[in-house]
Amino acid sequence: MDLKTDLRLCSLLPLFFVHWTACSADASLETNHITNFLLEVGPPQNLQIIDHGHLGELHIQWQAPIFFKTEDECLLWYGLQYYSPDQKRWKRVTTKLLKFIVHFNLEKEVKAKVQSILTGKCINGTELRSVWVETALHPSLQGNVDSKIRNMSCFYYNRERLECRWQKGNKVPSHGYNYYLYYWHKKMDHALECSNYIKSDGYNIGCNFAGAYLIEFTDLNICVNGSSSHGNMRAAYFTYELQNIVKVDMIDKLNLTLENKEYTWNGVWLPSKSHIIVWNMKFNT
Ligand SMILES: *[C@@H]1O[C@H](CO)[C@@H](O)[C@H](O)[C@H]1NC(C)=O
Ligand SMILES: *[C@@H]1O[C@H](CO)[C@@H](O)[C@H](O)[C@H]1NC(C)=O
Ligand SMILES: *[C@@H]1O[C@H](CO)[C@@H](O)[C@H](O)[C@H]1NC(C)=O
Ligand SMILES: *[C@@H]1O[C@H](CO)[C@@H](O)[C@H](O)[C@H]1NC(C)=O
């Protein structure tokens, strides 16, 4: 087979991209390295956004481009972009892996796109990018938006006890409804429901996490959904890191005498990102 017929054969193959090296097994081509450069690379296949029920932690995954053979002189990367509605911009990641785990707020649409990127000698030291493939995960819009809880507040009292409270949505049935809280963090196999609700008139208005296994410095994903005699109510999602929502109980009085002056200490809220406990000091002369 001479060079001409071989090339023609290659171009007849219904490949997504021209993969010259696949055709170069013929001895006549072995020495002709110029024709071995890849000219095109296919996009990743089967891009999916998978929700394992972790209340916001999603797995974006895909497979290698079709007909792609890894070669010593070729590096295959993936360029991933996902839309962050909170920051209103696309975030970029370059990876060699076939999966990326990222946190989203499931109340909003999740969009992701990925492309193949080839670098290395197989493309003569340049860079080759495929077209993008894109997918989206639409939020579940069950229930009226006004049935969603309002004013969620969670505090981690004295770094010991987590408590969340909420108010009912603006539009809830007069009776026959309730809200439910589910939570998940990365050390849990699956989301669990609150086991100790704070109730008012029989309705769940908060959760006391006493006895729950919680950890600091990691995302704690929370979903509060609900159901009523008219069907489901709109779910709300939150993510906290415990050390950021510490609230220190008030110390009634700390007797401190310094240079004949008396100081009183008051515990303060700790909404900051720091995990240093700050105290306010009132000075009485
Ligand atoms: C490969 O790259 C070298 C250096 O940039 C260049 O001189 C050569 O023409 C390229 N070959 C092809 C086939 O593009
Ligand atoms: C509760 O949420 C509503 C909006 O959903 C807001 O207008 C109101 O100020 C909040 N109340 C408190 C006490 O934060
Ligand atoms: C609330 O969310 C949890 C966790 O995703 C789910 O198991 C449950 O079925 C949902 N309940 C309602 C009423 O939507
Ligand atoms: C504070 O300490 C002084 C000196 O020990 C003591 O006389 C006083 O009763 C203390 N005050 C309080 C409120 O404990």
Automatic annotation (TrEMBL):
Cellular location(s): Membrane
Keywords: Glycoprotein, Membrane, Receptor, Signal, Transmembrane, Transmembrane helix
Signal peptide from the UniProt entry: 1-25
GO MF annotation list: cytokine receptor activity
Cellular component aspect of the GO annotation: external side of plasma membrane
Domain of life: Eukaryota
Topology of this chain in the membrane: Single-pass type I membrane protein
InterPro entries membership: FN3_dom, FN3_sf, Ig-like_fold, TypeI_recpt_CBD
Domain Type I cytokine receptor cytokine-binding: 151-245
The protein, known as: Interleukin 13 receptor, alpha 2
Encoding gene (name): IL13RA2
